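hey m, so remember when u said the tokens were messed up on ur end? i reran from scratch. heres the input so u can diff it against urs
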Amino acid sequence: MKIYAVCGAGIGTSVLLKSNIDKVLSVLDIEAEVSAVSIATAMDAESPAQVVLITPELQDQIKGIASEVITIDNIFDLGELTQKLSASLS
């Protein structure tokens, strides 16, 4: 499974979000390849990601992609990440 953590440039918020996604997936015992990427990468028609996690202020910029989009309100809230990833991946 391929998961994208997305922010505008792919080097700030997405890196922090990726780190927390990795923690949550480890606890849930789910194997996935998580990448921190830019919006442009996530919007690529050939994107291999099944799931994209993004913050609310950017979600309008990522419409119409094939991946499931999950909006994360607080990238530091492991409870929110756990709940949303569990619901999506189960």
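this time it looks ok to me. The helical segments are 13-28, 39-43, 78-89. if urs says something different then somethings off w ur setup not the seq
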